[in-house]
Design goal:
It is found in: Membrane. By secondary structure, this protein is α+β, with helices and mostly antiparallel strands. It contains two helices and five strands, in the order ααβββββ. Strands 1-2-3-4-5 form a five-stranded antiparallel β-sheet, covered by helices on one side. The termini are far apart.
Length: 128
């Protein structure tokens, strides 16, 4: 019985965490945060870039379709709402075309990603 009484007394005395245990837990949480936060921000940057690329692809398709219908490149410089082939599309950014449009343009998305579209339709992104 005496062993049981000792065990009960020990259980009553231990009522919390030691300072060392708390410091170890805080250190582990800090290490995990230090590893995961850069990855998280990388994922959000990739998502923003893909959103800008997606809108630029839609814009390129509309622009090409308008050219095939009319035979000329329409000036869409400085616009965020574009009317091509009688339908209007609004984009999250502005479009820049050269003085003599040849089918190339630069689309600057509102999240600062810049997408350049060349004459042959290749899209390239530039980080903000």
């Amino acid at each position: 019985m005496e062993l049981r009484q000792r065990m009960d007394k020990l259980k009553q005395k231990q009522k919390g965490f030691t300072l060392v245990e708390l410091i170890v837990v805080i250190a582990i949480i800090g290490i995990l945060a230090g590893v995961m936060l850069p990855r998280y921000f990388g994922f959000t940057d990739d998502a923003r870039e893909q959103a800008a690329m997606s809108e630029a692809r839609v814009l390129k398709s509309l622009y090409d379709m308008d050219y095939s219908t009319n035979g000329t490149w329409k000036d869409i410089d400085g616009k965020s709402t574009v009317t091509l082939n009688g339908s209007s599309s609004t984009f999250s950014g502005t479009i820049s075309c050269p003085d003599t449009p040849d089918g190339s343009f630069t689309f600057v998305h509102t999240n600062s990603w810049s997408i350049a579209c060349t004459i042959d339709g290749k899209l390239t992104s530039t980080k903000p």
